[in-house]
Each structure stands twice: as C-alpha cells, then as structure tokens.
Amino acid sequence: MTKQLSPTCLPLLTLQSGVIASWQASSAGLGPRRMEALARAGRWQRLHHGVYASFTGEPPRNAVLWAAALRAGPQSILSHETAAELDGLLDKPSKLLHVTIPQSQRVRPIAGFAIHRSTRILEARDPWLLPPRTIIEETVLDLAQEATSFDDVISILARACQRRLTFPVLLRRGVEVRARMRWRADILQALEDVADGVESPLEYRYLRDVERAHGLPPGKRQVHAAQGGRTIRRDVCYAEYGVVVELDGSISHADRRLQDNRRDNAAAARGVITLRYGWPDVTELRCKTAVEVGETLSRRGWPGPLRTCRRCMSANVI
Q1: 20 to 30 Å CA-CA from 33: which of 99, 166, 192, 229?
Q2: Cβ neighbours for 201, distance < 8 A, ≥ 6 positions apart
Q3: How distant, in Å, are the alpha carbons of 154, 216, 314 from that of 210?
Q4: Which helix (H) or strand (E) segment is 77 a member of?
C-alpha cells in the first residue's frame, strides 16, 4: 500500500506516527478523497473527522496524540496535562486530550478533548519537539494556573525542577511575561524557595508557616551527608546548631521507620539532634512545632527570640 503513496506523503506519515490530516493532503500529494477511499477499503482508519491513520488496529499513544494535534487545526499544539505527559512531568496519560488553539480560531466541541485558547500560541510553542506542544515552562505554568490549591502548585513547580525539565529562573521568566497570573507573587516566592531546595508541599509549608512565620533561623535544604558509607540528604539542616529537621508527608511503613531510626541514631552518635514532622505537625500544630524547634535550637546556642504569629496569638501558644 505504501508504494502507492507519493514520495512526499511517506516522510510525513513517518514523522507523524502514521497519522495525517485532510488539510495536509495537497502538500502531501494525496487528495482527501483518496484518504477516505483507503479508509473505506480497510487499509486506513479514520481517527477523527478529517484525520486518518495509515494502519489498522489500535493506534499507539503517540499516534493518538498526533491525531489530537492535527484534528484541532494547523496552528494547534498539545498543552496542559497532555503536553506534561509527553515531557515526563506527569507519569500517567491524561484522560482528556488537551489542545491549545489561537484565540481567534473557532472549533466546535470535540468529544474527549479540552480546547484552550491563547493569544501567545507562537511564543508558547516548542520550536523543536514533536508532536507540537507548549514549551515546558508554559506547560508547568498552565498546570499551576488550573491547580485547585497552592499545595498542588508547589508540587508541580518542584517536580518540574527535580526532574530537570526546567529551572526556577526559566519559570520565573515565564511568569513575568504573562499578563495575567493567579498567585503571581506567591509563585515567584515559591520559585526562589524551590531554587533553594524545597522539593514538596510539606517542605514549603514548613518553610513558610513554621520557619519564616516564627522567625527561626534559615535552614539549609537538601544537605548531603555521609552515613554508613553512603550519601544521604537531610531535608532541613541547622548546621551551626547541630539540628536536623526531617519532613515526611507519607505514612511510614515498618521498614521505612526502621531506616529512619537508624539514621537518627547515627546522627545522634555524632551529636546531631533529629526532629521529625509530618503533615499535622506542619499544618494544625505548626506553632507548637515552631516552639519545639526553637527550644531545641536555643539549647544549642540560638539566641532567638521566637516570633509570635497570628495563629500563635489566637491559640495562645507562645
């Protein structure tokens, strides 16, 4: 069958995972009627209105994504969760196919699609990657804008930087060029914190609501330390005072607790005190946690004083 196609069409099909749109027909040397005839003959299949796969059977995921981009038109690009899936920011395929089109373009609703519009589609498009998609910074910020909580925003920002998909400085530039940005000031501050080592919403909450809110000395984040012949990382380290804070947002299993105890015991043998906190300690009990950390640091030489926050005054903690 492929021998019957034009030399122009074959490279295009190879590039697009075997998928082609009718609006590409003239440039590919293949008429729309020919595409429909191949589909009726069972040699091809129609994936969407005007979009065909040059094979039969279940289309692979990359072909599905190509078909989505082509279905929305020549200037459309994959975005949001779908672009994040392609770039490795999300670990599961997106349920909806997210596509961004120019603000002026009109497209009827498409089943299984989430259509977004942008006045900056040329700037947002990655110039190199295929299928066509938003650059990673745009993808991250798009997801941040649609997040239901700021904890989710922190998770997105931190994950993108941890996986070396982008860097805080590039995300900051992306924020600055957007005319409208929800949580703008908070995101800019959070990017500085991610650059300093914050890797999770729990770590951000500790920094914001425990450490800063109560005037504790700034700790260093993700500090490497040698232990038992291997390198470990400490979430927050107050090296001057020999105090470490470890933050765990998950429910620890027995093996994990055993490992934590061994780490803490080994640190204690070297004169380092380890304090461990989870979500309740950093949210509902954050003022009591600040008092505990402050008292531990004070016994190690921190001059203080501990600052009283609004929550402390209402709860009469400090």
Answers
A1: 99
A2: 151, 152, 154, 155, 158, 249
A3: 17, 8, 16
A4: strand 77-78
Which of 130, 125, 124 is CA-nearest to residue 62? Answer: 130
Task: Give the pLDDT score at 106.
Answer: 87
pLDDT for the residue 1: 47
pLDDT at site 31: 77
Determine if residue 193 is left, alpha or beta; phi over 0 gives left, psi from -120 to 50 gives alpha, anything else beta. Answer: alpha
Q: How far apart are CA 69 and CA 78, in angstroms?
A: 6
Looking at residue 250, its pLDDT comes to: 65
Is 151:142 a contact under the CB 8 Å cutoff?
no
Residue 56, Cα to own-chain centre: how many angstroms?
35
Write the CB contacts of 113 (distance below 8 Å, at least 6 apart in sequence). 68, 71, 72, 96, 97, 98, 99
Residue 230 tokens read as 């291997």
Q: Residue 11 and residue 54: Cα distance in Å, rounded?
A: 12
What's the angle, vertex CA 135, arms to CA 151 and CA 179, rounded to 5?
70
Q: What angle do CA 264, 213, 153 make, to 5 degrees?
A: 80
Residues of the chain predicted below pLDDT 70: 1-4, 227-228, 250-271, 315-318
For CATH 1.10.10, list the domain ranges present in the chain: 2-60
DSSP state of 90: S
Radius of gyration for the alpha carbons in the chain, expressed in angstroms and rounded: 26
Choosing among 1.10.10, 3.40.50, 3.10.620, 1.10.260, the CATH entry for 2-60 is: 1.10.10
pLDDT value for 259: 59
Which CATH number does 213-315 carry? 3.40.960.10
DSSP 114-168: EEEEES-HHHHB-SS-SS-BB-HHHHHHHHHHT-SSHHHHHHHHHHHHHTTS--H
The pLDDT assigned to 26 comes to 80
